[in-house]
Amino acid sequence: MSLRLENLTKRFGQTTVVDGVSFSVEKGELTALLGPSGSGKSTLLRMIAGLERPDGGRLWLGGEEITGKAVQKRSLGFVFQNYALFKHLTVERNIAFGLEIRKVPPREIRERVESLLELVKLTDYGKHYPHQLSGGQRQRVALARALAPRPEVLLLDEPFGALDAKVRSSLAQWLREIHSRLGTATLFVTHDQNEAIEISDRIVVINRGRVEQIGGGEEVYDKPSTRFVASFIGNVNILEGFLDKERISFSGVEETLAASGRGGSGPVVILVRPEELSLRKLGESGENLFPGTVQTVSYRGSFFQVEVRVGEMVLRAVEEKRNFHRYEWREGERVGVSLEGWQFFEVPEGHEEIREKLRQLGYIE
Amino acid sequence: MRSEGQHRGLLLRSFALLYVGLLILLPIFAVGVKTFSTSPARVLHELFTPVALASLRLTILTAFAMVAVNVVTGTATAWVLVRYRFPGRKVLDSLVDLPFAIPTVVTGIMLAALYGPRSVVGRVLGRYGIEMVYSRVGIVLALLFVTFPFVVRSVQPVLMAWEKEAEEAAQTLGASPFQVFAKVILPALRPSILTGAALSFSRALGEFGSIVVLAGNIPFKTQVAAVYVYGEMESSNLEGALGVSLALLLFSFLILLLLNLLQRWSHRYE
After folding, report:
1. pTM score, two decimals?
2. Taking CB atoms and an 8 Å cutoff, what residues of chain B touch A144?
3. What are the average pLDDT values for consecutive 10-residue runs of chain A, which has 365 residues?
4. d(CA A221, CA B72)
5. Per the CB < 8 Å rule, is B174 touching A82?
6. Residue A149's closest chain B neighbor by CA?
7. Cα A244 to Cα A250: distance, rounded to the nearest angstrom
8. What is the DSSP code string of A151-180?
9. Which of A60, A291, B1, B81 has the fewest CB atoms within 10 Å distance of its CB?
10. With an 8 Å Cβ cutoff, are B168 and A72 in contact?
11. Domain match, B1 and B90 both
12. In terms of residue numbers, what domain contains B22?
């Protein structure tokens, strides 16, 4: 069965935290609801579950409208960031809870619990209490508990947020596996773009209570439809320039950037991902090559991050180890920065307001 | 070699042990010695006189009645104080401790003034055949008053630290509000409710002031154990006083033991 949101809206006092959100989640689909903290994604999820009452819009499950339906009757599974297990019950009884409430015959409950314990790889932990388990194990119990009554839709609110990086990524992969086995329509909230790109079929990017873009991971990364999406998904350099006669100039820089096919003139913003920048020896010639000075070089494990000052801008570039060792860039060294790709955005009205927001969210300085 | 800190620790521990020993254990020991230095047989005989047994029975029955009411009203009060925001909440919160602050004799006088046969309330109740003064109902009432804070104050912090997500989880699993309370919240509160119940029970075993004022000292009717012991001391019947005292002491120990076992049992999942 599919879940459909239609213009869902929620206000807390004067602020609109969810603002006319519409999308749907189909059976068999694993959808990520991705956004920065405070973007309204958790509130949205809680509204779907019925834990929060929407101020506007409608919710559909299959052909049935569930907007005003009580939480208890929605047939949705919910997994909380902090597990929310029943501390006084064993793992088995936690998983059995939803079935006991529904008065499922004890024999059936036993069988279901057993198969779920197997699914979440906790067969030997049935008699344990939650406090005896690790964070990752607890979250697996929470997932089994949510799945026990066979919900039509599974909702997960930052399910791996409280776990350390390693457990987090293995658990995310494992959720992907479980999902492909069960096919339950699944919607999970995350602020981690990597997690979203890694495991979901589709990503709904949400910012300030509104949907910014809906699409597959590759689409959202490579063809961001808004500046927000471009800057939120992955690292990005934000360059402000001035477009005139198909060329963009930057303050304090002599060279210009070729923007063929771009007519008109006025302020523009260009977003360049670090991997779209490459560093050259100074003096090499080429299109879209800007001279600059290396400011910092930092080792990041599998790559080096090099910050280069170009005019008034500081550009962050990523150099693979092999590449880096060919040149051994030093701080203070003059280099050429080649822009090999970028996203182009004309600056609309209210430019400053948007920048201010991006600044607050920490995407630009 | 021991450091100065370890020495200080040893000293403090010894002092704590010594203090508790002198202050609490020694008097208990003294009652035992006294029993054996008079005549254990007489003490036992005095304990099993009908009037002594009646006072003990009454004490325990009224204590149980009080506890049964207290666990409900105390939990409900704590619930209201934690879960709702309303004008006067802070006042209500501080009123809860009042019974501890008021001398129990004064409590007895207050209750007698309110429920006495010459007061308006007393007359109305009297019309329905309910007597508060010189009655067993009065004893339960006095006990309810003096022990009120116990359950409230032991349940309240647990409720405050409670994470609501478990309730929401239960809801999404299909539990009705009543089921959420019965299956999720109540089990979590059980240890603290039991603690409050046990504390108020043992407090009730020894209540004297409020009961003697409100319910008097009528043998077989309103004479509770503590009042009986006092009467026996007054009439220089040491053995009579010792018998019931030892019985009360035994009950107190049993409750303490039970409380510990219950707590260990309910903390098995923590």
Report:
1. 0.75
2. none
3. 91 91 91 90 94 93 90 92 92 96 95 94 93 92 94 92 81 88 91 85 92 86 78 77 83 82 76 84 81 87 86 86 81 87 64 53 46
4. 58
5. no
6. B173
7. 11
8. -SEEEEESTTTTS-HHHHHHHHHHHHHHHH
9. B1
10. no
11. no
12. 1-37
